[in-house]
Write a structure and sequence with these properties.
It is built from 1 helix and 5 strands, in the order E-E-E-E-E-H. It is elongated. Strand 2 and strand 3 form a beta hairpin. It is mostly beta strands and 93 residues long. Helix content is 9%, strand content 37%.
């Protein structure tokens, strides 16, 4: 299912976590246009859009989409975990 055409304002965000220098914004808003974030800033400075979504103070965080693992981590690592919990030195093996 495709998103509707046009821009959408996501407004009244309690905490907006960004990947950029801004870090965490409070009382924030963002605009989604053509499936991408087109604007981020304070709620009271938000531009006009085709539609709006009021998230009522909820937090908005970026999606974590590059979830992967490495084969080196395969297998049982319980011995390492036990050593770490008792303060002993350990190495992967």
């Amino acid at each position: 299912m495709n998103a509707p055409a046009g821009s959408t304002l996501v407004d009244h965000i309690g905490e907006l976590v960004t990947h950029g220098e801004a870090g965490v914004l409070h009382d924030a808003a963002l605009v989604i246009d053509d499936g991408q974030v087109a604007w981020v800033g304070a709620s009271d400075q938000a531009p006009s859009t085709d539609r709006g979504v009021d998230v009522e103070g909820r937090a908005v965080i970026p999606g974590f989409v590059d979830s992967h693992s490495h084969l080196v981590f395969a297998g049982d690592r319980s011995a390492e975990f036990e050593a770490r919990m008792t303060g002993q030195s350990y190495t992967s093996g």
